[in-house]
Amino acid sequence: MITRDKIKLLFSDIRFWIIIFFIIRLIGITNAPLEIGHNWRQSLTNMIARNFLEHNPNMLYPQIDMAGNLSGIIGSEFPFFNYLIYLVSLVFDYSHWYGRLINLIVSSTGIYFFYRLIAKVCTPKIAFNATIVFLSSIWFAFSRKSMPDTFSVALVIIGLYYCYRYLTTGSIWKLILFFLLTTLGMLCKIPALSLVTVIAVAFIAKEISLQRKIIVLLLSAISVGIVGIWYFYWVPHLLETYHYQLYFPKGLVEGFNEITPLLALFAEKFYFSSLSSYIALPFMLAGIFFFLRDGHRYLKIGVFLITAAFSVFILKTGAVFPLHNYYIIPFTPIMALMAGYGLSKISTNYLFIPLILISLEGIANQQHDFFINSSEKYKASLENITEQNIEKNELIVINGGQNPQEIYFANRKGWTIANEKINQQDLTQFSRLGAAYLIIDKHSYDKPIEQYPEIYSDENFAIYKLVEH
Question: What pTM was computed for the model?
Answer without folding.
Answer: 0.94
